[in-house]
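Researcher: Batch entry, complex prediction.
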Amino acid sequence: MLQVMMKKQLADFTIDIQFTVENNILVLLGPSGAGKTTILRAIAGLLRPDTGTIIHNERVLFSSTARTFVPPQFRHVGYMFQEFALFPHMNVRKNIWYGVKQNDNKAKELYERLLGLLHIEHLTTRFINRLSGGEKQRVALARALMAEPAILLLDEPLSALDSDTRLELQAELKKIQGIWKIPFVLVTHDIAEAKALGDQFLFLEKGRQVARPAFRPSEFCQCQSIELA
Amino acid sequence: MLQVMMKKQLADFTIDIQFTVENNILVLLGPSGAGKTTILRAIAGLLRPDTGTIIHNERVLFSSTARTFVPPQFRHVGYMFQEFALFPHMNVRKNIWYGVKQNDNKAKELYERLLGLLHIEHLTTRFINRLSGGEKQRVALARALMAEPAILLLDEPLSALDSDTRLELQAELKKIQGIWKIPFVLVTHDIAEAKALGDQFLFLEKGRQVARPAFRPSEFCQCQSIELA
Amino acid sequence: MEWQPVLLSLKVALSSLIFVFIFGVAAAYSMRSFEFPGKSALEALFALPLVLPPVVTGFVLLVLIGKQGPIGQFLSESLHTQIIFTPYAAVLAATVVAFPLMYHSAKAAFEGVDSNLEDAARTLGSGSWRVFWTITMPLSWSGLVAGLVLSFARALGEFGATIMVAGNIPGKTQTIPLAIYFAAEANDLTLAGAYVLMISGITFFLIFGLNIWSKKRCGKSSVKGVF
Amino acid sequence: MEWQPVLLSLKVALSSLIFVFIFGVAAAYSMRSFEFPGKSALEALFALPLVLPPVVTGFVLLVLIGKQGPIGQFLSESLHTQIIFTPYAAVLAATVVAFPLMYHSAKAAFEGVDSNLEDAARTLGSGSWRVFWTITMPLSWSGLVAGLVLSFARALGEFGATIMVAGNIPGKTQTIPLAIYFAAEANDLTLAGAYVLMISGITFFLIFGLNIWSKKRCGKSSVKGVF
Amino acid sequence: GGEKKAPPAAQQAQTVEINVSAAVSLKDALAEIQKDYQAKNPNIKLVYNLGASGALQKQIEQGAPADIFISAAPKQMNELEAKNLINKGTRKNLVENKLVVVVPKETKLNITKYEDLTQDSVQKIALGETATVPAGQYAEQVLQKLGLWDKLKERAVYAKDVRTVLAYTETGNVEAGIVYKTDAISSDKVKIAAVAPEGSHQPIVYPIALTTGTKQQEAAEAFVEYLFSADSKAIFEKHGFVMGK
Ligand SMILES: Nc1ncnc2c1ncn2[C@@H]1O[C@H](COP(=O)(O)OP(=O)(O)OP(=O)(O)O)[C@@H](O)[C@H]1O
Ligand SMILES: Nc1ncnc2c1ncn2[C@@H]1O[C@H](COP(=O)(O)OP(=O)(O)OP(=O)(O)O)[C@@H](O)[C@H]1O
Ligand SMILES: [Mg+2]
Ligand SMILES: [Mg+2]
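Model: Structure tokens for the complex:
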């Protein structure tokens, strides 16, 4: 269980949010610039909220009153960056293994499984600058999963993938969550994806939770009668 | 009109493609790693095909037989990179203006219009590293449009945007194409977007055109009954 | 203590800095863009002034720009002038010894520039020249500044080669290091100390100024964000 | 020509390179991570050995490690040893003069590292130490190599400070630059020339080797792709 | 000084090292003498530290190990004496040198005496820095004595050491230079055009003395004595020096 309560002053507005994620999937939704990435960074320990607390299974990761700040490397957070942040001086294999603590059989199995799942078996010796955008995204996802985290943060993890792969991976993520039973926080702009993955939803606008999003019906209707010329 | 005929050996397969874009919008579709970005780079002049020709309105941009290679700066191509490639040492305003040749009233009007359209008025003096992912994408789009190109290449231009903004911008892109009447080549993974924007479609798989994509019906069905908890 | 060596030193160091910057950056940029046989040899040649004792560099320059040297003869025949034993020779000496510092710093800096950004600039209509000035240079700025600091310091402190080709003509070619050397040799340690303080002061001033300036710059565009 | 100065020079330059690398990188990295009053002053101090004539640096070192100097006294009292007029003094001198080159190169190199990648490594469980070794260092490699080249060249060519603290004792503390000086002073220009060729040869060898090595490395992970 | 004597037993068994700090211009002569002397005294090891006299002086002032100091001019020796760092009683003049005018070997100018330097065709003359380089000081004395100083001052290029004067002359960048005879002999790209008249300058002497810090008093004295022997004299004279009185 992850409890987040934080305030953080940004350039244009203040993030002021409070939520609890049970051991399931929370989907963060909201327009571009609403503060989604900022919230993930705060949970990962890459930035300090101005005030608030972040608690994971009774362990205080951050508390402004108790002056607690657990540095990122001790938080056991798997964080997939929106812009991947893959290590350009390592090949795909090394990138994926970077966060693994114990190089045991279990890790090897997981590695093989992820390679297959993400269709990146043929890329293991490639360097990052020679991957396509979607390939990078899948490698970044593999890296975050391989660390076997206690909390998983995914910032638009499937945005650069074609719909087939996307659907496949949505199912896989759901399955993995079912096995690991840890809190996932996931950002996406795709309503269908949110629907498919989310157990809880949090709509964000200018740093604050909004009760119900003002979705325009248009986007849902359009899909119905797809027929490509 | 843009005519492309090219072969290029890649790590895992060879791109072998041939297509013509009238002054309208061609949508490139295909799984991750199919060669979409590579094709755009070839049109922009950032890589040389092994063989083939690229011709724009009778002007030969590339020809392997005639040994013609027009360098990118003379191609008048507006290219929005998949990973943005915004200049980190300039603010948003400078980035957007970078490709403008004539700083006249027309340019100023277009600039103001794009700022409004893309909702980035408040960001003009921000540096790139202080933008959110979607903000970067919108700035990159503005930069490519501001250059008033003769060909526009957009590599997943709206992938990081929320659906509202996305729909709005799809309409705007369509409108702009209608005014400029130049060839657009657009990459997207979103079928609805392809449908909304495309005049022509090209399905790519491992570097080759495939007649008809094997779309799974699932993705279209799902949208119909959206109801978020 | 006299002010003349201080002024002369500053003049010489700054003038040579201009040349060092131009040649160092140009050389590093060309070496980045072109592959040719003998490239490594040329690179090694560029490092030589650093490894050779300055007196040897000075001697080589003396032979080149001296009365009978190829450059010296060219100058005296075509321009009826000579630079040996003049402050110009001091500028030349400082330029040659500081060059490797700028070259290697600039080379490393250019290597770090993301070529995607240069590509992006090219698609936006910039020719190589504009790409260089607006993208490559600013993005390698911290490396170039390091090169400039090192070069300036080296030029300011240059002694061995300078004294060889510029001579030590008080009031005409005596720079601070020469003044220090002669004061020390004459056992006037107070005077030598004064000049040492002077030259250290200039260095402090330079680095302070640079730090303040680059902090201002970073305030605007810090690569690390503010969080 | 004798081989002893060549061997000694290599030994001294390589040993000092180790110290220069450790101290230079450590200093640059700490300066990057911490803000404190007097930081600019410390930075300026780090540039001083470059700007001061080596003889002055040598004199300062002489005073420090001489019999009456604080370091000299400490060494003779606690360890019953002295480093003045020994090859260790030459290593010390080379380290001090080459340090600024490494420091400034490393500093610029570290500034160029994308802090997002360091953040990513941290979320993957790496402590500062591992982040430094696996991310920061490799990513600033080209700048660090430039610093190493410059430092090695400078250490190899070091003369003024060395002769002051290590003396010029043939067979014991005579490095190549000292041998050059010594041969030139004795008017044996052939011998001096031979040593100059020798030291140039070492430089060529170094830069050649480095280029070949880094080409191999780039073949694997070129930042520019192959297209 | 309160020097500690090494235990006698150790002294006999071990070879004795004598540290000699000497002006670099004595290099060749001292190297030959070293060979002879060590052959004759196998338990003695001579360690030379060769450098500019001023640098050697500073090293001795800072307590660098040296048993014997040979300076290229009295000045450095005087200063050490004033600081009580050399043993006054042991100070002697080892060798003498002469001051000569050198010209490039292929020169077209006709210079045979110091006065010829005033010819208009002599545009530049190299000499050592008059305040610091002994050869420069002596050159100034000679020129003043001969009444040429005021005329030649304008043409002077001051070098930081004699080697540089030679380099300027060898490369033809000056028409003439003033150096020691021993230096002139060792270079084959210059020739001696004139020798300073007897008495036109103070004698150019190389003083020698034991330092007060020496721990090898006896061995060092024995070596100094050998330097004044006929064997050594022959070697010094071969290299252009004149033996002191
Ligand atoms: N710089 C490079 N060097 C070598 N191979 C590369 C390079 N960039 C991409 N590739 C390979 O070329 C193929 C096509 O890549 P491309 O970037 O064109 O794919 P894409 O269709 O744009 O995919 P995505 O939707 O994931 O962006 C892929 O197999 C990829 O691994
Ligand atoms: N490094 C930074 N420094 C200052 N402000 C920033 C920085 N990064 C983002 N911001 C601002 O903070 C706000 C929230 O940014 P954040 O990255 O959290 O948005 P987001 O919800 O992830 O948006 P997107 O969907 O576009 O990625 C935005 O207004 C943005 O401009
Ligand atoms: Mg974001
Ligand atoms: Mg792509």
